[in-house]
Amino acid sequence: MLMIKSKIALKSAVTLAITGLAFNASANLMISEVLYDAPNNDSLEEFVELYNASCSSIDLSQYNISDNGASLALSGTLASGQYFTIAKDAAGFNSLFSRQADLAPMPLSLGNSGDYVKLLKGTQEIDVVAWEGGLSGWTLNATNVSLVRSTNTQSQADWDVGSNAGHPGDGSLTTSCGTPPTENLLENGQVKTSLNASTGQTLKFVADIPAGATGLSFKMNGGSGDADLYVRQGSEPTANVFDCRPYLTGNNEECPIATAVAGRYFVNITAYQGFSAANLVANYTPATTGGGEGNPGDYAFDTYYANANGKTGSALKASLNLIIRDHTRFTYDQVWDGLNYADEDPSNTNNVILLYTNRSEPKTNRAGMSNSLDAWNREHVWAKSHGFPSSGQHAYTDLHHLRPADVTVNSSRGNKDFALGGAPLTEAPDNKTDADSFEPANMVKGDVARMVFYMDVRYEGGDSSGTPNLTVAKGVTGTGEALLGDLCTLLNWHIQDPVSDWERRRNNRVYEWQLNRNPFIDNPMWAEDLYSSSCN
Q: Which Pfam families does the record associate with it (predicted)?
């Protein structure tokens, strides 16, 4: 028989099903910058910027902003640690800041003689900023410059008058999420064993859940003593604030999640009495499409690429960019699970296939979990030092160019350009390298080329990804530049090593997670259309 700890706890013993939003979302979506008196034209250049300070993506469709004359319903999804810009006029905003707004037009007047912006979730006020007496006690006054937030006390003290018209899409605000130690990261189906704590102590874990996951549950069992399981999506649970707390006697407790939300779940185990030898596991089923071998059910080439079909040259590139941009973004920790799924060995679901070596390696034999020289890590095919050194930039975690790779082979590749020549690697002699370039094995040369071409088209700069315009270039490029070479070598590899069934399978699986595709796998001819004129 399951025993409830006390009559008072009886009501708390019922598991609370999560229905779509983190409890802390309202406290962590905030107004971060406002330009209400623009340098040239208020009706064209004004903007409001929001920031997601939580540890999970936020569904903006449940929010709206308003001033004393109008309101605007928001849309889209905002990733943790990212900014969202709302412009009075899209063209005017782009002209002043050389970037595209995330949402436009905005009907708010943002009056110069006293006004405010309120952020609401439904009818509940979440945040507010006011100026020039727009609300009692607010005396901020800015002329031709923006109001910029630096802290979060939800008062006028959070705000400063900027020195220019603003930096929409960028700023100094940060999340408190951090990167958890590997031993504290719960991964799908991987049991944490031999957990021990003294009375009153708390063990803390996190789990990063991908979009579309179903059947999510957190289960604790085994050992002796009395431990309590607490689960909360988006931020750490407390004794009084949680999504699930079974609160039973002993160590056998489970939190099933009715509707999983993409993002981070925080899981605490608190010792009601000292316990030992307990186990903890997170289980879920990733979004699938019947094994990922065929086309996902919601993908059809003619529909997905409707706005690109029939176009050539710069018009084709612009259309493809619009189709594949704004993908679902994951944290760098979530990338481990993404690669476990996208690169899963079809013959052994406990393994992944490594880039460059084509070796099947256990999912658990990875950097941070193993000291083996055969361990694998996350290879950025477009080297991150070539344009996006920060994990907050979307290209840093884009699964379309992240691949499992042997740690020593990955180290040999480093951040070098791709080109012909060099000495064979001792561990993987089908791959060669010299001082400034890396030549992958013939069997993956086309794969590499198509991943690089994807990056060149996906990241054109001026969007909310925080990534500059990435350009595949001719010749050798330098570290720190948003360039990667060699264009003509890569185009030859693309032609010589055609798209394989493995690539198609992987493209489908990444699409399930990110909701965007690599167009050069779906239509290889587009690469020749875009790049052949540069290579004679």
A: Endonuclease_1, LTD, PPC
253 bridge partner residues: 220
| Strand pairing category for 202-209 and 253-256 | unpaired
- In whole angstroms, how far apart are CA 400 and each of 347, 373, 450? 22, 26, 10
Residue that is written with structure tokens 């264009």 in the block: 487
Q: How far apart are CA 535 and CA 271, in angstroms?
A: 66
Asked if 245 and 267 touch (Cβ cutoff 8 Å), the reply is no
pTM: 0.52
Q: What is the pLDDT of residues 249-307, one digit of tens each?
A: 999 999 999 988 877 788 999 999 999 999 999 999 876 533 345 566 678 888 899 99
- Mind listing the pLDDT tens digit for each residue in 324-377? 998 999 888 899 999 999 999 999 999 999 999 999 999 999 988 888 888 999
Give Cα separations from 330 to 211, 311, 337 (angstroms).
9, 31, 10
Type and span of the H or E element at 224: strand 224-233
Whole-number Å distance between alpha carbons of 506 and 528: 22
- What contacts 303, CB < 8 A, 6 or more positions away? none
Written as six digits, the tokens of 474 are: 């001719």
Evaluate whether 239 touches 178 at the Cβ level (below 8 Å): no
Token digits of residue 522: 């779906």
Tens digit of pLDDT for each residue in 77-103? 777 777 899 999 999 998 898 778 889
Q: Where are the beta strands (DSSP E) in 329-476?
A: 344-345, 348-353, 360-362, 376-380, 402-406, 417-418, 423-424, 432-433, 437-439, 471-473
8 Å CB contact between 271 and 26: no
Q: How confident is the model at residue 514 (pLDDT cuts 50, 70, 90)?
A: very high
Provide the 8-state DSSP code for 454: H
pLDDT tens column, 455-466:
999 999 988 899
Give the pairing type, strands 360-362 and 417-418. unpaired
Give the helix/strand (H/E) hosting 73.
strand 71-73
Q: Which of 296, 323, 232 is nearest to 506 (CA)?
A: 296
Distance in angstroms (rounded) separating the CA atoms of residues 455 and 457: 5
* Backbone phi, psi, residue 158, to 5°: -70, -20
